Each structure stands twice: as structure tokens, then as C-alpha cells.
Here is the input.
Amino acid sequence: MNRELLTLYGLKWNPFATDLPVEGLMPTPAVDSFCRRIESQLVRQGGFAMIAGDPGTGKSVALRLLANRLERTEGLGVAVLTHPSASVADFYHELADLFGITLVHNNRWLGFKGLRQQWRAHLEDTRLRPLLLVDEAQELVHPVLTEMRLLASTDFDSRAILSVVLVGDNRLLAKLRNPDLLPIASRIRQRLLITRSEPGELARLLDHLLEQAGNPALMTPGLKQTLVAHADGNPRALAILADGLLAAGAEQDRERLDEKLFLETWGEEAQPRRARR
Here is the structure.
């Protein structure tokens, strides 16, 4: 959203953009509790944690809030794996780049050894396990997950030297039920399973986004109710609908958005789903 539109609406930023500032995000009680558990337990004990749920329900928001919180933890090294569908060789290359290890002639054994030595030294110095965040973890291939498990522990599997947070949709849950991956599933110490939001939760989210962006009165109460009803419990759907209204309202030079604009913009295409039986 350009500066002219922000000025028109009296906003500091677009409250429905995907690149919303961290201070604009709203942690739910479940997300806040999960972040606290990762901060107080996982980075000190090591092992695996998981965030899973349907698309658009807030997994990426939870991950951003967790990363922002942990990056402020003194002595903790946080890395983000950006290519989850990579092969084992590419996985080692990315880890080497993330943790400053030099791979010699693509020698995975030296990479394995160097990573574990570095993580053990970090643990001895800080008493904190380095943390690896993996978004879209449902795309990880089985051999990479196995390598991740082997890398993360030492001393005959009695000592964890790395913390890993896997984030993915419900395909991740199905993948971890595979017999070959049960050793990973059994090591997940903390879980955050995100489901569709209740109408009241979406209403609070909408109010929060508008307030943090600087204009809590941008939408009429009726429009807010309409948006919540049509979003069907999905925060991403709510943001997409609301973002479309910002663009449509700007074309008409509106300073406040209402239900009439919603009907003009979305019409029959955004009818709410039938109630579940």
C-alpha cells in the first residue's frame, strides 16, 4: 500500500498485508504459551517441537512471533531453514551456510562432524541449544528428517545438542505417522496444533489489527461482523477480504469502509459457508 493510501485511511501500515510488522501481530494465549515453553524448556533441553494446522490459520504468524522472541534471547543462536524440500546434500550445504561450517569437497561426514562440534561448544559456553526453525516442514523428505534427528543428539542419543521447531500444515502430522519417522515423532516435546478460529477470536483479531495500524474506526461494526462471518474461521481469508476492501475504498476515496462496499466488491463470491452440522 502506497503512502497516499495510508494517509487517506490514517494508517501507519497496511493491517492486512503479509509483511505486517511484528508489533502488529496478535499472539493468542495458545501461541504465547507455546513460545514460553520453547524459551524456557526446549532451548535448554533440546529436541523437537512442532506447529501444525490448516492453511491460513496462523502458523506463520506463530513462527514469526516465536522467532522474534527467541532472537532477543542472549546467547541463543537461531537459524531458519529456507529450502525444506532439498536433498540431503543440499540440506548440509544450507546448514553449513547457516552455522558457518565449511564443507570440504561436499564431504557430508565432515559437515556432520563440524556441525555437532560447533553445537556442543555452543552448549558448553551458553547452556543453550542452538535453534533451527523449519517452515513448510511437510515438504521435508524422509532422509533429511532422519539426518536432522541424527545431528541433533549425541552420547548414544542421551544428550540433545540442537533444538528444532517444525512448522507445517496437517500433511506434516500425517508424515510423522510413517513408521520410518516414528523416531522423530517420539522426540517432539512441545506441540502447537492450530485450528480454525471462533467468530469472537476473529473479531478480536480484526480490532487488534486496525488499532495497531492506527485507525480502529476504519470499518463500521456491521462490516466487521460481515467480514468475520465470511472468513469462516480462517485469519488469512479475513485478511484477503479486508485487503480487497482497502483497495476498493481507495478507488472511491472513502475514509470509512462499510457493508455496502463489501457487497459492491465481493458480491456473491464471498458468501459464508453453511453451518456445520
Remarks:
- The chain has a mean pLDDT of 92.
- Residues 108-126 form the longest helix (19 residues).
- The first strand starts at residue 47 and ends at 53.
